[in-house]
Amino acid sequence: MASVELYSHPALYTRYRAGFCSAAALALLLITALTYVPPLLVAYRSHGFWLKQSAYLEQPTVRFRYEALFVATIGSSPGSFLAWSTFPAFNRLQEDRLRVPLLSTREEDKNQDGKMDQLHFKLELPLQPTEHVVGVQLILLFSYHKPPAHREPRDTSERSSNTELHWVQPHRQKVVFLGRLGYSFRESC
């Protein structure tokens, strides 16, 4: 009758054998299978089997907070600027340099995934015939929320960002600026 060796120790000349259909041989076969098969299945199913490179991409939820600060330089001398903001305290400080523009904004979701992809921001500043804009600074505030599945240890529920433009061609009727959104972290306690 054929048998399988269950255990042997050469120094003590000890050998334990059992038949192929015995409970001990089946237990040895089961333990051997459980030693090798489950780790291979876990590695294969987690897509980590011989993983050389991996990338994790996600799109945060970025929304325009409808808060802006606008400064237009109209000359080279100090104090020759026009300003406006959505913050009333800033507007009170500007006195005669305050100029209220016509503003229209629209957020657009290009790929219909529920997250805004573009902001259309139009600002028209009324000027006197003697005024010429030579520079513009524009700060727009955004809220930024990353899904909680990200592995970042910080609370990233709200962030602020700004976009700035510093140069305008003189005597132009229209200025088009396409910018990228940058953000800064704000830790929450």
From TrEMBL:
Keywords: Cell membrane, Cell projection, Cilium, Cilium biogenesis/degradation, Glycoprotein, Membrane, Transmembrane, Transmembrane helix. Its main location: membrane. One of its GO terms (cellular component) is ciliary membrane. GO terms for biological process: cilium assembly; regulation of protein localization. The keyword Transmembrane applies. It is a multi-pass membrane protein. It is found in: Cell projection, Cilium membrane. InterPro entries: TMEM231. It comes from the Eukaryota. Transmembrane component of the tectonic-like complex, a complex localized at the transition zone of primary cilia and acting as a barrier that prevents diffusion of transmembrane proteins between the cilia and plasma membranes. Required for ciliogenesis and sonic hedgehog/SHH signaling. Belongs to the TMEM231 family. This is Transmembrane protein 231. It comes from Geospiza parvula (Small tree-finch).
